Amino acid sequence: MAENLKIMVLNGPNLNMLGIREPGVYGNRTYTDLENYIEGYCKKKGIEVTVLQSNCEGELIDFIHHALGNYDGIVINPGAYTHYSYAIHDALSSVNIPAIEVHISNIHKREEFRHKSVTVPACVGQIAGLGFRGYLLAIDYLLEEATSRAENQA
Ligand code: CA2
Fold it and tell me: Left, alpha or beta for 52 (phi > 0: left; psi -120 to 50: alpha)?
């Protein structure tokens, strides 16, 4: 199963600015470092991964729609859209692909407006505050679930 697993990693607005500003919140590493970190890990694990980023809500929705029939799992950091985009929630619900929401920072320890996620009810769960590692943990979860589903079917 591991060889065939296809995962889309989706990053929302401002994540392209990682490492450039606010190192105290998001660390020193850049968005390119994040891409390399995820791609390097997936290569080792034999997972096919596509890492995407957009600052536009509609484009993120198009990416989610494109995942239908093309990907087995989604890892999504919707950025600030987490807190108010019902459209991204609905897009995730519409494709019915297991999705894990990831946040680099612990949104629950930050400003009140970041405590609420309107997108996580359309996901399997959420990982927050574990930095870049959260993406790999989400990928591991999707891989383990897919492997156990495949074993149960055999
Ligand atoms: O902690 C996370 O991963 C967030 O999804 C990051 C979003 C934020 O709006 C969410 O509440 C939590 C922000 C993306 C990065 O924004 C930057 C802003 C300035 C400098 C660098 C990155």
Answer: beta
pLDDT digits (tens, 9 = 90+) for 3-53: 589 999 999 999 999 999 778 899 999 999 999 999 999 999 999 999 999
Quick one: how far is CA 25 from the chain centroid?
18
Nearest protein Cα to ligand 1, atom 5: 79
Q: Which helix (H) or strand (E) covers residue 138, if one does?
A: helix 133-153
Nearest CA to ligand 1 atom 20: 21
Give the separation between CA 105 and CA 79, rounded to whole angstroms.
10
Which residues face 103 on adjacent strands?
128
> Is 26 one of the catalytic residues?
yes
- The whole-angstrom separation of Cα 105 and Cα 127 is 9
